[in-house]
Automatic annotation (TrEMBL):
<keyword id="KW-0547">Nucleotide-binding</keyword>
<dbReference type="InterPro" id="IPR033911">
    <property type="entry name" value="MetRS_core"/>
</dbReference>
<protein>
    <recommendedName>
        <fullName>Methionyl-tRNA synthetase</fullName>
    </recommendedName>
</protein>
<keyword id="KW-0067">ATP-binding</keyword>
<dbReference type="GO" id="GO:0005524">
    <property type="term" value="F:ATP binding"/>
</dbReference>
<dbReference type="InterPro" id="IPR001412">
    <property type="entry name" value="aa-tRNA-synth_I_CS"/>
</dbReference>
<keyword id="KW-0030">Aminoacyl-tRNA synthetase</keyword>
<keyword id="KW-0436">Ligase</keyword>
<dbReference type="InterPro" id="IPR014729">
    <property type="entry name" value="Rossmann-like_a/b/a_fold"/>
</dbReference>
<keyword id="KW-0648">Protein biosynthesis</keyword>
<dbReference type="InterPro" id="IPR029038">
    <property type="entry name" value="MetRS_Zn"/>
</dbReference>
<dbReference type="InterPro" id="IPR023458">
    <property type="entry name" value="Met-tRNA_ligase_1"/>
</dbReference>
<dbReference type="GO" id="GO:0006431">
    <property type="term" value="P:methionyl-tRNA aminoacylation"/>
</dbReference>
<dbReference type="GO" id="GO:0004825">
    <property type="term" value="F:methionine-tRNA ligase activity"/>
</dbReference>
<dbReference type="Pfam" id="PF09334">
    <property type="entry name" value="tRNA-synt_1g"/>
</dbReference>
<comment type="similarity">
    <text>Belongs to the class-I aminoacyl-tRNA synthetase family.</text>
</comment>
<feature type="domain" description="Methionyl/Leucyl tRNA synthetase">
    <location>
        <begin position="34"/>
        <end position="418"/>
    </location>
</feature>
Length: 566
């Protein structure tokens, strides 16, 4: 079962892009393979456009690009069922935590399916015991090898609720940068707030200021890993903001990180005298990735695949994260992988910043949000994807603005891209009965020919993990579309076969290289051009080889995919 759940097999709309394919090692010894992950979402709400601009999108685009180039890539993820945000939301809804997690996991998957971003395997810890087993076994290994220690730490305690308060149940200001934050990691600077505490902290349930009481905690003293982690960072082409963050942390001295809590929700600490304590998901999350990879392997009948992928140096591990997940993905989890001694650390950590709505943070409680499930039903998913890429918060905060989205649709997609495509198809129908002319490759506008030749390399630079940039890719595409339409408009005559052939070849090239960003439009256009679209989409253009086949008949008219927005 290669899809994320049985439901995906039954519902065509759920079918993720391409065919997951990672051949056995024996068949392709020493081949570089890509393992792509996206930060696990909390199943405490549906996804809004801010969520969709982030790790899900980047992971999906990279997977599509790699497969189009014939490289082996798999994208796995899991839902953060054990997050403390789940019972908080359950209390608000009057549901159990399991019911809440199941409800929102289903909605998240439906939204990802609408956006064409579903992972190849999306693991559900509440339904798949593999997750808990992986966490427990790896915890015990780390406990036995001395990576985990015990300390008594001052911990926020609500005297009114009479419980220790953590993460979702604490709200205050970051003690480093002062912005509003919950109790674990600052959403803005990404620095840990536990132990030490937030400024002006309040219990979310009752508003009382917490006291700090001693509590027995399990911790990972990270200072022991400083040199080995530094060796990992120095050799890694991680996104610069993450590298700056980890370098700063190492210079300040790596902290002892608490990994357990006195709480009644979560995976219990699997030690005899730790009843009433659970493991922090910010600790256990890395084993969620391992378990999700194992779930994928089991689904395709390769139970040993997860070990190969996580252990072999040929695997390129790419984490897509929101910047506020930097501590776990770039510091704590690499340290745990090093401590276990048998796994590879991530090759790439690609972070993004916050995506705001009309200049302000998305806020569910204030109703300041555009939900993916609603928006993707009224706007074409590929238009949304292109716009999220154009305005992506990859290096700094950015905004979704409705007027800008309308311009992307009306000016770029409808007014330029598809108007140009329709004009080329109409002219081909009038001049050559919709048959692609056989001409010398030197005929037609040199500018249009050069655009088609250069575009695959230019887009590849934006999609390769070392230099991955959704903004760069979208910008290059939009610029090429404008140039193509401009050349068409400026041409003295469209009747010349070489001119038509050059524009058709550029359109086919655009369809191929746009596929990671706009898979639906790419396939839709390719089919109209008479091209074969495989399970992994259109193959990436090869240098010196035309995409189109002369003599092939194309559709008599170009059928548009996008509609102008009013
Ligand atoms: Zn901060
Ligand atoms: Zn309280």
């Amino acid at each position: 079962m290669p899809w994320c759940c049985a439901h995906c097999l039954r519902t065509p709309a759920y079918r993720p892009a391409g065919s997951p394919r990672l051949p056995r090692k024996g068949r392709q010894q020493m081949t570089q393979r890509f393992l792509i992950t996206c930060a696990p979402p909390n199943p405490n709400g549906d996804l809004h456009l801010g969520h969709l601009s982030g790790p899900f999108f980047g992971a999906d685009v990279l997977r599509r690009y790699l497969r189009a180039r014939g490289r082996q890539a798999v994208y796995v993820a899991y839902t953060d069922d054990h997050s403390i945000y789940v019972p908080r939301r359950a209390n608000e809804l009057g549901l159990t935590a399991r019911e809440t997690a199941a409800r929102y996991t289903r909605r998240i998957e439906q939204t990802l399916a609408l956006a064409d971003m579903l992972p190849d395997h999306y693991s559900h810890p509440h339904r798949d015991s593999r997750h808990d087993r992986f966490v427990r076994n790896h915890f015990l290994e780390l406990w036995k090898n001395g990576t985990i220690a015990e300390q008594e730490l001052p911990t926020p305690y609500c005297p009114s609720c009479q419980v220790f308060r953590y993460e979702a149940y604490l709200r205050g200001r970051c003690r480093f940068c002062g912005v509003p934050s919950d109790g674990t990691y600052c959403e803005d600077c990404g620095l840990p707030q536990d132990p030490g505490g937030l400024h002006d902290a309040r219990c979310v349930a009752c508003g009382t200021a917490p006291e700090y009481r001693p509590s027995r905690r399990l911790v990972v003293p990270l200072s022991a890993f400083a040199d080995r982690l530094t060796a990992v960072f120095v050799a890694s082409p991680w996104r610069q903001r993450v590298l700056d963050y980890v370098t700063g942390l190492v210079e300040q001295g790596l902290p002892d990180v608490p990994i357990s809590r006195e709480a009644d929700y979560g995976l219990p600490v699997p030690l005899a005298d730790w009843s009433g304590h659970v493991l922090d998901t910010w600790f256990s999350g890395i084993f969620g990735y391992l378990a999700a990879t194992a779930g994928y392997g089991a689904a395709i009948g390769e139970p040993g695949l997860w070990r190969e992928l996580w252990q072999e140096p040929e695997t390129v591990i790419v984490h897509f994260i929101g910047f506020d997940c930097s501590f776990s993905h770039a510091v704590l989890w690499p340290a745990l992988l090093l401590a276990l001694g048998e796994y590879q650390t991530p090759t790439h950590v690609i972070s993004n910043e916050f995506y705001n709505l009309e200049g302000e943070k998305f806020s569910t409680s204030r109703g300041h949000a555009i939900w993916g499930s609603e928006f993707l039903r009224e706007a074409a998913p590929d238009a949304v994807r292109l716009h999220l890429a154009r305005t992506n918060p990859e290096y700094e905060k950015s905004d979704f603005r409705s007027a800008e989205f309308d311009r992307t649709v009306n000016d770029v997609l409808v007014g330029t891209l598809e108007s140009w495509a329709a004009a080329v198809f109409d002219e081909l129908a009038a001049q050559a009965d919709s048959v692609i002319p056989a001409v010398e490759s030197t005929q037609g506008s040199p500018t249009v020919r050069a655009l088609a030749e250069d575009l695959p390399d230019r887009l590849a630079r934006e999609f390769e993990p070392d230099t991955f940039s959704l903004r760069g890719a979208a910008g290059t595409l939009v610029e090429a579309v404008g140039a193509a339409a401009g050349e068409w408009g400026a041409a003295p005559s469209h009747a010349e076969p070489g001119e038509l052939a050059a524009h058709l070849e550029l359109l086919a090239t655009l369809a191929a290289v746009a596929a990671p960003l706009m898979p639906g439009w790419s396939a839709h256009t390719a089919r109209q051009l008479g091209l074969r679209v495989g399970l992994d989409g259109l193959a990436w253009p090869r240098p010196g080889l035309p995409v189109l086949v002369p003599g092939q008949r194309v559709a008599p008219r170009f059928q548009r995919l996008f509609q102008a927005r009013q």
